[in-house]
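hiii, so i know i said id send this last week but things got crazy w the move. better late than never?? heres the sequnce for the chain we talked about at the cafe, plus the structure i predicted for it. fair warning i was half asleep when i ran it
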Amino acid sequence: MLNTFQDAPAGAAAPQFMFATGIENSNPRVDGRRVDQLEASGHLRRWAEDFALVREVGCNTLRYGPPLHTTWLGNGRYDWSFADETFSALRRQGTYPIADLCHFGVPDWIGDFQNPDFPWLFEDYAEAFARRFPWVQLYTPVNEMYVCALFSARYGWWNEQMRSERGFVTAMKHLVEANRRAMRAILRVRPDAVFIQSESAEQYHAASPTAWPEARRRNAERFLSLDLNYGHPVDAPMYEYLLDNGMTRAEYATFQSTDLKRHCVLGTDYYVTNEHLVLDDCSTRASGDVYGYATIIQQYYTRYHLPLMHTETNLADNGHGSATDWLWKQWANLLLLWETPVPVLGFTWFSLTDQVDWDTALRENNGHVNAVGLYDLDRRPRQVGRAYRRLIQQWREVLPARSLCLQLPLAPMTQEFPT
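okay and structure toks below
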């Protein structure tokens, strides 16, 4: 499915295991207010310093994207000035970007994810980006499609702020269609592009026999965005649910094509909040990590049979070692996966710096710093940042020898591409 890049000159081989971090670039609208995490973290001003920190911690890969709402000015209109500076700097320093093109928000002129034109418009944007930066090979066209549809159209928190099943299904089909169209557009420019989906890996546990049917329903729904993206048939109750809430048979049929799957890596995000307890009244509460990442992710691998990357995790650094303990726990889960047939290509602590107002899911403008970064907002290393640096130093020479069959077809950063 994924072949080793054949044309790399001697000494220019790409990393075989991706040690990654990310720079949080969420930008949804909440109550008419744009929430820009690149601005909140200071990255728009301090991007050169941040890229130096990526090298300092030892990461060879960075989940990163330009601010969509200020880059995409209209249909066929773009301001590439910030992207030109930042992506050129990443190329010069030899850090492989995973280009994160749409992260929870769209420009004002599009409106929101209920807009039926969004998938077609985003296809053009993705192709324009790929032509502007033809050396970029790794992409996450649309980040966490399931979470974005959930927060925007069922919970009523972001963007369209709807609270309906029809709104949720509409947002879901538009997000997935945009992702698939973007992949095809990028492949027209870079036929060897690799798409690393970043999706939340969820698990629902029944608190009692009464809650079991709802837990099963939610455990089917957690796969919905990936099922549609990869052409995997949904189960009968989920199919009825989609039809009852606005998806047509013809639309569902378009999602059954599997022509893109061979270009994909299953990127999965896992936090301590990703497992839920379903109660008798069908409500949920956090359960903590009951199964853990390795157990849950084998369900995803069994379903899709794709190589895997752990694309997000973090825990607040309270100064007592909890974040460091969580890092090692997630790493231990990856080591456990290497004892199974699941091919693991990379690991990510997300994000490079602390984030802002995620304790309220960006719904409140409190300026509250969430201490989940490898570095704080003054760019001082946190305890977990030092631990991640040690982890990379210890394992980076070990993993390639154990995972030679997992090489990605990454073009060397020194290769020239036509502009």
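btw The two ends are 28 Å apart (CA to CA). thought thatd interest u
miss u guys!!
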